[in-house]
Amino acid sequence: MKLSAPFTALALLTSSAFGFEVITFKDDNCGGESKTINVYDNTCRNSNILSRTRSFQVQSYGGKSQRAAFYTDTSCYPTNWWIDFWADGGSDQFLKGRCINIGHDIHAFGSRAA
User: Fold this and answer.
1) First to last CA, the chain
2) CB atoms inside a 10 Å sphere around CB 22
3) Which one is the CATH code of 18-113: 2.60.20.10, 3.40.50.300, 2.60.120.430, 3.90.226.10?
4) Residue 16: is it exposed, middle or buried by C-beta count within 10 angstroms (0-12/13-18/19+)?
5) Angstrom distance (rounded) from CA 80 to CA 99
6) Tens of pLDDT along the chain (114 residues)?
7) How far is CA 20 from the centre of its chain?
8) Alpha carbon of 29 to those of 1, 18, 104: distances in Å?
9) What does UniProt give as the signal peptide span (predicted)?
């Protein structure tokens, strides 16, 4: 079965239409250099980010039942230290406007369905 180009484009847009957005900070307590990034649902983000992230502030939530993950590795595999939160607004920690200290140097961001 061959899919048409418009159908393929729609499917791609639909699968990544949501994502969480954070302002990342190079230092603890949301200090130092900052960069706003969007991590689309069910993706890994490890490019066009700060050289390290120590803290962040949530700007928008991801889709329903999504987990926001932060990795010390440069890939979204938990081979070393990592932490995750509910990214859909259901967390008591991952809240808009709150500065969240990670306590580690983060080099990749992921979003996955729980």
Assistant:
1) 31
2) 24
3) 2.60.20.10
4) middle
5) 24
6) 454 455 434 444 444 458 999 999 999 999 999 999 999 999 999 999 999 999 999 999 999 999 999 999 999 988 889 999 999 999 999 999 999 999 999 999 999 998
7) 6
8) 53, 27, 13
9) 1-19
